[in-house]
Amino acid sequence: MSLSRKRKKELRKLQREANNLWESQQVLVGQAANVAREAGRQLGKYGREDLGPQVQATYGKYAQPYISKGVDVSRDVLTHRVLPATGAVVGSAMSVWDAANDTREKLAKGKGLSLPDSKTYAKKAEKYGKDATKALSKKFSALEPKKQGMGAGGVIAIILGVAAAAGVLYAAWQTLRADDELWVADDPLRAPDA
């Protein structure tokens, strides 16, 4: 099948126009990618410079006092009530143990049973209690809570970053979607329907 010179000329012209359109679309896609990259960078800056400090200040103003108060109350209950009671229980148990050992030794020597000296064992119980309280207090003070992981500001910045990226992708899609004015029609041009 052979084409006339006029038809070949028209096809070459159409091919050039299609190539020009394709090149302009490639440039447009490249520019959209640059805009998306820059938008992501700007969003990161906004999160670090504006949003992060604002979230941190709001947290410090509203939430931190209540959290600190709760931690202080818990620490106070533990150090002033639980640890001394635990120390007293441990001291009493050790005192009873010592009394039992002393009684066993007296029986083994044939001295018989006698009433234990309550002052001596009271002093020993108090000493054991104080020592146990000190040891438990040292272990507890070493268990200070350490900040780990990302805070609320980081999570919010990530969410906003994803939303911004989705917005940029949606804008690019709206720009590049198949509009009748942007693409070459397959059928010959005809007058619009009235």
From TrEMBL:
The chain crosses the membrane at residues 149-173. The keyword Membrane applies. Keywords: ATP-binding, Helicase, Hydrolase, Membrane, Nucleotide-binding, Transmembrane, Transmembrane helix. GO terms for molecular function: helicase activity. This is DNA helicase. It comes from Microbacterium invictum.
